[in-house]
Amino acid sequence: MSRRxxxxxxxxxxxxxxxxxxxxxxxxxxxxLCDEWRTHAMATGPADRSAAEAAIxxxxxxxxxxxxxxxxxxxxxxxxDLVPPGPIRSFYDYPRGVANDIADRLTGLRxxxxxxxxxxxxxxxxxxxxxxxxxxxxxxxxxARSHLLRPLGDLVRGRIAGYVRAELGDTVxxxxxxxQEADWLAWFSVLEVLRERAVHPEVxxxxxxWAVLARSCGWWWPRNGRCVISERPTAxxxxxxxxxxxxxxxxPAIEYADGFAVYAWHGTRVPAWVIDDPTPDRIAxxxxxxxxxxxxxxxxxxxxxxxxxxxxxxxxxxxxxxxNLLSLYDQPVHWGRNQRLLVAVNGSVExxxxxxxxxxxxxxxxxxxxxxxxxxxxxxxxxxxxLLRRT
Length: 391
Prior knowledge:
Strand content: 5-15%
Structural class: alpha+beta
Number of domains: 2
């Protein structure tokens, strides 16, 4: 049986359907659906084990395998002790494991969504307000892609699932994210509501077990004869205002019952010390500039400068960022010889409308902050002074 026939692909070709101008009911339903999927993706507390096991059993049967023995663990990290990652076989290797068969079937469904328009995940978001775009005749689904689906994917897959996976390292193996599969499931829900393209009921039925898993459990690892499933996090913290970026100034941003945790500062994944115990010496020893910035912001710039014993050398207006200053500091000797710290203000505005301060290490021979800033761009001071705006 060909893959096309196997997945019913011939039944889900895009079919444009127009939406009456000024009719926003479907749009608001799409907004509510994305909110609902985001809620599932960020749900905490005990899993619905019976629902999750029933859905996974269905996927096993569709892959031609008997339902497995289920093993529940408190976190994805605990699962790694029970599921050696092993090699991921190619499509043509035999014998094939049940995980590969499940993956092949899912690929057929998601391939269609990618074929329709990859800008769901990677397209740039238009600057206009969503309702303004709708009122001027823009396609509701085009607006939903940019203003609803892409931000949901950035949060769920890019940040939450992405940060958990990064914390686990390279030994995760072939698995699925359960509740954090919500981003691509929302794609099909919005597609149906806005009715711009028809999706065959057979395909929607194929998605149902995945939707149940997104509402029921955390990550899961299907293997021959057994399946390891993680409970959901016990806590997920995000910024209070603006976009819901993972953030917690007082502890883990994502936490599981067994203590496995991910720390984040306003959407940036950081080591635990950045939140729990930032000190000037630790900050100075950190090689990653973004981690240093987050740690300094948490500690406070003035506390960092005072506590670290930095001495102001000079300040100057920033030619590339009008209205802001460049400040050059001497560092303590034990932070590294022949270096100074240049403190600048970001040329780009953050999501909340503020501009971040950040520090850059520059050679110790610089006495002029403008020359030091120019050096970080590979320019001379005179060239840097001609910039209208830097990033």
